[in-house]
Specification:
By secondary structure, this protein is an alpha+beta fold. 50% of the residues lie in helices and 15% in strands. The chain folds into three domains: 114 residues, Orthogonal Bundle (Butyryl-Coa Dehydrogenase, subunit A, domain 1); 113 residues, Butyryl-CoA Dehydrogenase, subunit A, domain 2, CATH 2.40.110.10; 145 residues, Butyryl-CoA Dehydrogenase, subunit A, domain 3, CATH 1.20.140. Bound molecules: flavin-adenine dinucleotide.
Length: 385
């Protein structure tokens, strides 16, 4: 089978699965702020969330190109991959830096759905994007780390068995470079919650199961550390290109959903005796948004090709994420405008998708931080931080 055939078959199969979860499913969950458990279970059982796990560890051994197609199709169907996307990119840290024992213990269970690894604890309330300044400390005491601190915006904790936690194991004042002294720990959430870890939901603009998390002498066995102590920042960076490509694909999926809805509405809605889409004031912004979504998709495909070939792809992955997030946001705005007042009505799903796609201007990485990466690391201009 050629790559093109594989991708076409994959799209068709994911579309079929998503068609069982119509707009009304996502709309009702959004209104009640309920986690899409049935959807995530179905996607897991069909093996899609294990796309990047190697065959010998129970996954399907596919590349980032295929994984990104799966998430794109979920968003294109009107759903939201954010309910489960993190598993795809967090798992890479375990796959690349975990010990053979950790890989063999966890990955087959993650692939089968027995365990969910979809919580990622990085962001802190007082330090935000400046990750190396994080204050959560994991102090080694014999065969355990004792963790104290606080995280914010940690999503899906309540629907995950494991969390990848990034904490300082060496105080900032004792390291030569600020990127040293951070470590990655795998937290068994079923044991941790109520035993040193407290989780509080944050009501947010979108249905994202996001929380704030407090650590008060949480004990994590040393054997749950991924990779070497103090090298966590490097492992973190290592996973970012995959994350950028996957999020770019979700944005492309959102963008295509918006354009399709906008075209349909613009062709059907008659005002002043003609379809509104006959007016170029309505037609051209939709056409322009389409052009931008398709252009962003090319960068996403390029980044995925480089990633899968094992080539450096930091610039392309970041550019893909920026272009796709901007394109989906443009498409969202254009669709809201095309729908007029009805864009605000929940029953058309435009306002829900509008809120959902807005996130990608800010998280998992904000637009400004991507621009600073491009300015400093790709174009070689002076560092600003
Ligand atoms: C719904 C949701 C889910 C999330 N899920 C997770 C999760 O599961 N795990 C996790 O760890 N985090 C998560 N996050 C956190 C997210 O990654 C951060 O919100 C994001 O990285 C921005 O950090 P901040 O909110 O602290 O903003 P800040 O760092 O306070 O920045 C605020 C604004 O200032 C800009 N800014 C800051 N410094 C500079 C600079 N030097 N130059 C130019 N602009 C600058 C930023 O770009 C941003 O626009 C989530 C956030 C949200 C909203």
């Amino acid at each position: 089978m050629t790559k093109t055939e594989l991708h076409t078959d994959l799209r068709t199969a994911v579309r079929e699965l998503c068609s069982r979860f119509p707009d009304s499913y996502w709309r009702e969950l959004d209104a009640k702020e309920v986690y899409p458990e049935e959807f995530v279970k179905t996607l897991t059982e069909a093996g899609y969330l294990a796309a990047l796990i190697p065959n010998e560890l129970g996954g399907s051994g596919l590349g980032i190109a295929e994984a990104s197609i799966i998430l794109e199709e979920v968003n294109r169907s009107g759903g939201n991959s954010a309910a489960c996307h993190a598993q795809m990119y967090i798992m890479g840290t375990l796959l690349r830096h975990g010990s053979e024992e950790q890989r063999r213990h966890y990955l087959p269970k993650i692939a089968s759905g027995e365990l969910r690894l979809q919580a990622f604890g990085v962001t802190e309330p007082t330090t935000g994007t400046d990750t190396t300044q994080m204050k959560t400390m994991a102090v080694r005491k014999g065969d355990r780390y004792v963790v104290n601190g606080q995280k914010v915006w940690i999503s899906r904790v309540d629907y995950s068995d494991l969390m990848l936690l990034v904490a300082r194991t060496t105080p900032l004042e004792d390291v030569k470079k600020k990127t040293e002294g951070l470590s990655v720990l795998l937290v068994d959430l079923k044991k941790a919650v109520g035993n040193g870890m407290t989780v509080r939901p944050i009501r947010a603009m979108i249905n994202h199961a996001t929380t704030e998390v407090f650590f008060d002498n949480l004990e994590v066995p040393v054997e749950n550390r991924i990779g070497e102590e103090g090298k966590g920042f490097r492992y973190l960076l290592d996973g970012l290109n995959a994350e950028r490509v996957l999020i770019a694909a979700e944005c492309v999926g959102d963008g295509r959903w918006f354009i399709e809805r906008a075209c349909r509405y613009a062709s059907d809605r008659v005002v002043f005796g003609r379809p509104i889409g006959q007016n170029q004031g309505i037609q051209f912004p939709i056409a322009r948004a389409h052009v931008n979504v398709e252009a962003a998709d090319l960068m996403r495909i390029r980044a995925a090709e480089l990633f899968d070939a094992g080539q450096p792809c930091g610039a392309e992955a970041n550019m893909a994420k920026l272009l796709a997030a901007d394109a989906s946001w443009e498409a969202a705005n254009v669709t809201m405008q095309t729908y007029g007042g009805f864009g605000f009505a929940e029953e058309y799903d435009v306002e829900r998708k509008f809120r959902e796609t807005r996130l990608y201007q800010t998280a998992p990485i904000s637009t400004n931080l991507i621009l600073s990466f491009i300015g400093q690391h790709v174009l070689g201009m002076p560092r600003s931080f």
